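// run 5 | inverse folding | seed 20
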């Protein structure tokens, strides 16, 4: 990255963000801006599955650059500027698990940032604390909130009020850090590597539920847990079952290449999706139709000959694999009897086809001139 106070590198699915502003890794505005850019880049790289936050130099971070407070019109304005630029929000909202490797001094903003990570690993020489009250200030980079979420008010309040610093064993005893190890760098990478093996949907949902525990009433949190367990668990099972079906097909056919997985119909009507998937799996459905406008609205390319797709039922489970054999675009009014028969739905007549599609696309301005994408396909697996 251009600002050498923060380095970002990727090691496979692992992102490593490094603070490097010697000698104390003080957070000034330039460093915080660079950190926001790094964390945002981690968020936007699809292959990322976990992140390590670490620091060069003798100390993790001694906190904010207090000298910058004198450059604003007032201390209130200075803290407002800091708050607007603080990277805590982007870090807290990252969709991937985060591990921080602490060593030396980790106080003020340095400690506050570490408390937003999922797992904190500390070297034996680590010292942590929030000195703000001793400076006639309040922690304003999330410390009162993130620390309380992590260890509870009974353990958090004394540390904030007294402005004490504590060593690594005491931080571990109070729950501020997960473990204290001699080789903190290796331990942080090993832990992040393990987290990177989690299914991304499971990791994302687990972090969302953990965060929600501090925001939602118990009943609402339990309801969210049940909903995510059902929906996310279903997606994961679907993805794994689809991958297994694809592997079987490739092994038997020798085919190699990409595929998509989707269901016919509408996700809001899982019963219809299952009925249509069965028509494909058992025959006679060997065609499907859609609006050109829908592809354009979703910014999706039209299907192409040779495309392979896993057909999912209403529960998201794979039914079969199809391969596209023909794609044409014609006005709705020019769809013929043969295509209606190939779609395999209802009584397979053109009259039924027109009536059913007029109902399905009701409210989208469908008339005889509306461009339709007509796709034919073969079922290729199970053979």
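// decoded
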């Amino acid at each position: 990255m251009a600002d050498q106070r923060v380095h970002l590198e990727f090691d496979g699915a692992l992102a490593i963000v490094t603070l490097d502003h010697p000698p104390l890794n003080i957070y000034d505005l330039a460093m915080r801006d660079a950190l926001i850019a790094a964390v945002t880049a981690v968020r936007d790289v699809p292959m990322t599955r976990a992140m390590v936050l670490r620091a060069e130099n003798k100390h993790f971070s001694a906190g904010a650059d207090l000298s910058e407070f004198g450059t604003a019109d007032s201390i209130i304005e200075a803290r407002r500027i800091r708050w607007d630029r603080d990277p805590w929000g982007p870090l807290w909202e990252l969709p991937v698990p985060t591990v921080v490797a602490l060593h030396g001094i980790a106080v003020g903003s340095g400690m506050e940032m570490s408390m937003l990570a999922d797992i904190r690993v500390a070297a034996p020489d680590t010292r942590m604390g929030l000195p703000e009250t001793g400076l006639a200030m309040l922690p304003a980079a999330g410390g009162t909130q993130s620390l309380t979420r992590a260890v509870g008010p009974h353990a958090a309040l004394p540390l904030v009020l007294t402005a004490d610093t504590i060593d690594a064993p005491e931080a571990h005893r109070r729950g501020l850090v997960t473990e204290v190890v001699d080789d903190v760098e290796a331990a942080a990478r090993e832990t992040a590597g393990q987290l990177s093996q989690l299914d991304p949907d499971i990791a994302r949902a687990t972090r969302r539920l953990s965060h929600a525990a501090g925001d939602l009433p118990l009943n609402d949190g339990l309801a969210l847990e049940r909903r995510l367990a059902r929906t996310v668990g279903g997606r994961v099972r679907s993805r794994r079952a689809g991958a297994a079906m694809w592997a079987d097909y490739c092994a038997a056919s020798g085919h190699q290449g990409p595929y998509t997985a989707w269901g016919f119909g509408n996700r809001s009507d899982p019963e219809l999706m299952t009925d249509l998937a069965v028509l494909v799996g058992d025959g006679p459905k060997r065609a499907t139709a859609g609006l050109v406008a829908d592809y354009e609205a979703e910014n999706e390319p039209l299907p192409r000959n040779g495309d392979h797709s896993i057909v999912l039922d209403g529960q998201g489970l794979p039914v079969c694999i199809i391969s596209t054999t023909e794609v044409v675009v014609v006005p709705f009014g020019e769809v013929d009897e043969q295509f209606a028969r190939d779609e395999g739905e209802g009584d397979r007549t053109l009259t039924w086809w027109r009536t059913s599609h007029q109902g399905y696309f009701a409210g989208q301005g469908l008339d005889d001139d509306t461009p339709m994408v007509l796709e034919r396909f073969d079922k290729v697996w199970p053979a």
